[in-house]
Amino acid sequence: MSDPAAGQNISSVLQEHRKFSPPPAFAEQANIRSEEAYQELWNRAKDDPAGFWADQARENLTWIEPFTETMSGEMPETKWFVGGKLNASAQCLDRHLDGWRRNKAAIVWEGEPGDTRTLTYQQLHREVCRFANVLKQLGVQTGDRVTLYMPMIPELVVAMLACARIGATHSIVFGGFSADAVADRNNDAQSKVIVTADGGWRRGKEVELKKAVDESLKKSSSVKKVVVVRRTGSSITMAPDRDYWWHDLMDAADADCDPTPVDSEHPLFILYTSGSTGKPKGVLHTTAGYVLGTMLTTRWVFDLKDDDTYWCTADIGWVTGHSYICYGPLANGATVVMYEGAPNWPDEGRFWEIIEKYRVSIFYTAPTAIRAFIKWGDDWPRQHDLSSLRLLGSVGEPINPEAWMWYHRVIGQERCPIVDTWWQTETGAIMISPLPGITPTKPGSCTRPLPGVVPDIVTKTGQSLGANQGGLLVMRQPWPSMLRTLYGDHERFRNTYFSEVPGCYFAGDGARRDEDGYYWVMGRVDDVLNVSGHRLSTMEVESALVSHPQVAEAAVVGFPHDLKGEGICCFVTLKQSDGDDQLKSDLVGHVRKQIGALATPDQIRFANGLPKTRSGKIMRRLLRDIAAGRESAGDTTTLEDYTILAKLRQEEE
Ligand code: WT7
Fold first, then answer.
1. Is 424 in the pocket of ligand 1 (CB under 6 A)?
2. Would you call 152 helix, strand, or coil by DSSP?
3. Whose CA is nearest to atom 2 of ligand 1?
């Protein structure tokens, strides 16, 4: 399959032949209804990107001043909608106040303890205006950075949109990060103000955010003011002339605040994301292109309608929450469900209870969550009425075909299309995904590029590869919602994404395209093994393992192997039983049978849990160290549960 001379080819061995057509009832009502309509949009965007995007931007964005040039400059320096002025918060709020949507629910929120709040567009607008005035009072000016380190409460969305309203750039730090991580990000962005809460609720325990902020401010001196939302009511210390209660400031603030007109390319937010090495990268997104990208993809991919109740389970601390809880859905005037806490609190039925209670129609979650649901058992979802659901989504990593099938069968009840959406913090918006009314889906494939997205699978020298040849996933054309730089390090931006493959944006993923033009993402290229001269995606071995009835989750890493170059080490968590030698050899046989002798695991290690980042990504770097019997070097600050690592080490023979 692979051509060793090409150097960068990756053997793709996952065979998946199941195919699911959109249910006719769904197809009939879909926003994009015909294959021809998709082809037409896609071809126009590819052949005449300036014309296509100018039309979309004029039709969908509310301009305070019109743009004069649609795109200027070569990738990666392309500027979009040059000369135009707009405001992202006005796009998400003010536009909806003229008509009936004024009194539509924008946010339907539920706290982990069970408290609830609903904010209509008008109410949300009012809160945003008031907080925008608060920020101004605290000395925040257009162009300044504001750090948001908050639980999943409506005030987080209010703070985001208030920053956007005055042209300040928000930098959201996920509430699960440590004080040190907050300090690093404050320092890198040179934030003036931080907005936080006393705490938030997670699995019945308080996450002490204000305490972490106090700690972080010892190391980050740019921050002069702290605004604290009272959420848990626990006792915290407030520093005079530095710390202010949200409610005190809001009570005194005026509810009128005109949106500040900003340039299309004005920085909207910075979001830090980890690279394979080095300090976190401050991915910078700008205003017009980002808002347009998230707005259109929400409508195309989630088939959003005015009467939908839409729930994305991500935390706003990650890009998924930025794009598909806040900007995309609100720009479309959607009703968004927002939930503060854990999926298994007070029990493993919480998500299904929320879907039943609010009659959620669109549900967007991650494979890591789906695998947890599978492990917890079908009884939890079966106890709830999920008949309101009409569309399911997945994001964050390749979804194992067996997890896809479970999602389809148990949650979607074989009625709901699944959109497996490929994109990245850097891309801003969904890039490759089914269109649920027209694209037949194949479990494990994110299918085809959206209009305006021109991907390719190439060798390191940029040569396109043929059907089913694994290679590097790149973008050949710029798109409006792409990152503009890594904050304060434009050189690293150019090096990371635009130097690997000449003339292209390199996503860092390996992938193949099948005979139908469907993309199959195999994971990050640094998760790729080289076994006996064949490149093999760890994810494909994992999928094979997870398709075994007793396996809950698997992580596969390479380790130095005398004969093969790299051997395959599998960390496996089981659904119920304890693993024994018999099961180990069964699993080895199972993988051989699923993929072939090439992928025969050298080691199977049973584990109670896998080390993950707080966003749920398995930290393979740590597992590689364990597999190789090395001490772990490097950064472990994003590790969710240190005890898992200690246990895995103890279990080493
Ligand atoms: C990386 C980006 C995009 C929001 C959450 C993650 C992997 C993401 C898929 C998918 C296969 C996927 C890729 C990508 N990824 N979605 N549907 N199928 N892989 O954002 O932290 O920036 O991570 O997540 O490897 O490069 P992120």
1. yes
2. coil
3. 424
Residue 555, SS3 per DSSP: strand
Cα–Cα distance for residue pair 10/110, rounded to 1 Å: 45
pLDDT of residue 278: 47
As a whole number of angstroms, the distance between CA 548 and CA 590 comes to 7
Contact residues for 607 (Cβ-Cβ < 8 A; gap 6+): 571, 572, 573, 644, 647, 648, 651
Question: What average pLDDT does the structure give for the chain?
Answer: 92
Query: What per-residue confidence (pLDDT) applies to 614?
Result: 78
Single-letter code of the amino acid located at 332: N
User: Residue type for 44, please?
Assistant: R
CA angle 428, 432, 435 (to 5 degrees): 115
Q: For the segment 483-524, what is each residue's pLDDT rounded down to a tens digit?
A: 999 999 999 999 989 999 999 999 988 999 999 999 999 877
In this predicted model, what pLDDT tens digit does every residue of 324-374 receive, in sequence order? 999 999 999 999 999 999 999 999 999 999 999 999 999 999 988 998 899
Asked if the model's pLDDT at residue 137 lies above 60, the reply is yes
Is it true that domain 548-652 has CATH number 3.30.300.30?
Answer: yes
Beta carbons of 345 and 204 less than 8 angstroms apart: yes
**Is any ligand 1 atom within 6 A of the Cβ of residue 147?**
no
**CA–CA distance, 254 with 133 (Å, rounded to integer):** 7
Buried b (16+ CB within 10 A) or exposed e, 438-457: bbebbbbbbbbbbbbbbbbb
- Atom of ligand 1 lying closest to residue 274 CA: 21
For residue 350, give Cα distances in angstroms to 13, 118, 312, 368, 558.
Answer: 37, 19, 14, 16, 37
649 and 623 Cβ atoms separated by less than 8 Å: no
Residue 635 pLDDT level (bands cut at 50, 70, 90): low
Q: How far is CA 521 from the centre of its chain?
A: 15
Q: Which atom of ligand 1 is nearest to the CA of 421?
A: 17
For 509, counting Cβ atoms within 10 Å of its Cβ (0-12 exposed, 13-18 middle, 19+ buried), the class is buried
Cα gap 171→163, rounded to integer Å: 10
The mean pLDDT value for 620-647 works out to: 70
Q: Which of 324, 423, 472 to mutate to test the pocket of ligand 1 (most atoms within 8 A of CB)?
A: 423
Residue whose CA lies nearest to ligand 1 atom number 23: 424
Angle at 632 between CA 528 and CA 205, to 5 degrees: 100
DSSP-based helix, strand, coil % in the chain, nearest 5: 35, 25, 40
CATH of domain 24-451: 3.40.50.12780
Averaged pLDDT for residues 459-480: 96
DSSP 431: -
> What residues does each domain of the chain span?
24-451, 548-652
